């Protein structure tokens, strides 16, 4: 029973209670539809011969039929609850899909009706060409403006680059001069330290020699002073002995003269 109902639903998506006018016009027949033959318009100013197509006379009637189908009560059958729930879920999905397709058909029919209105393709083309020309002019003006700005920025950047290169050369030469002066100063300081050490060593040697000579002179002077003192002592002793001898001689001479008298 369930599969038979599904097959009947696919064969006739519109139930009998949905649209009496459909049954009266003959379900499954082509009555109520018009056959469209002839050239098919593809775009502005172009036509193409295509196969005949079926176009509904009224999309509102189809939408009303689908709405009536969705609102129709479901047939109660002697089936299990699980199969019935699955069937109702599947049927609801198909009904929603059919409803969406009918809405798309209605939108396409409305679009085709508006395309049949009289338009002047030449004026529209001229307007599009004019708009494209204006857009091209605007883009060209913007391009020229941006190009001028880029050229000005490039010239300024080149000037700054040249100035930076000159400053770099000046700094490099200044650095070389400073390095040269630093090396010369280092050499002069090294020579000065060497000369100072040599002078200090020479002065130390001279002072050492002078001190040694002074020490020698002092030692020699002390020896000479000792010799002088020794000689003075000897002369003093000689004078004392001579005085004693002379005194003794006078005493003897005095004694001899008294005896003669």
UniProtKB/TrEMBL annotation:
One Gene Ontology cellular component annotation held by this UniProt entry: nuclear body
UniProt region (Disordered), positions on chain: 195-223
Gene Ontology biological process terms, A to Z: establishment of localization in cell; mitotic sister chromatid segregation; mitotic spindle assembly checkpoint signaling
Biased composition (Basic and acidic residues): 195-219
Stretch forming the signal peptide: none
Entry-linked Pfam families: Zwint
Protein name: ZW10 interacting kinetochore protein
């Amino acid at each position: 029973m369930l599969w038979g109902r599904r097959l009947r639903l696919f064969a006739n998506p519109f139930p009998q209670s949905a649209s009496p006018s459909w049954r009266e016009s003959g379900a499954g027949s082509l009555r109520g539809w018009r056959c469209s033959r002839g050239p098919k318009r593809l775009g502005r100013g172009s036509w193409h011969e295509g196969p005949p197509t079926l176009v509904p006379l009224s999309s509102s009637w189809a939408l009303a039929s689908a709405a009536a189908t969705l609102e129709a009560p479901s047939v109660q059958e002697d089936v299990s609850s699980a199969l019935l729930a699955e069937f109702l879920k599947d049927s609801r999905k198909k009904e929603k899909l059919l409803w969406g397709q009918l809405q798309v058909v209605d939108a396409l029919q409305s679009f085709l009706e508006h395309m049949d209105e009289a338009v002047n393709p030449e004026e529209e083309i001229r307007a599009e060409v004019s708009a494209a020309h204006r857009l091209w002019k605007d883009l060209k003006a913007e391009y020229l403006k941006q190009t001028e700005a880029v050229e000005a920025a490039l010239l300024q950047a080149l000037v700054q680059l040249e100035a930076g290169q000159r400053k770099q050369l000046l700094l490099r030469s200044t650095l070389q001069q400073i390095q040269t002066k630093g090396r010369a100063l280092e050499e002069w300081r090294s020579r000065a330290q060497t000369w100072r050490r040599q002078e200090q060593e020479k002065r130390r040697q001279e002072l050492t020699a002078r001190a040694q000579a002074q020490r020698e002179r002092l030692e020699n002077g002390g020896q000479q002073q000792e010799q002088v003192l020794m000689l003075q002592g000897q002369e003093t002793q000689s004078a004392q002995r001579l005085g004693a001898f002379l005194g003794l001689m006078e005493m003897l001479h005095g004694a001899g003269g008294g005896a003669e008298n």
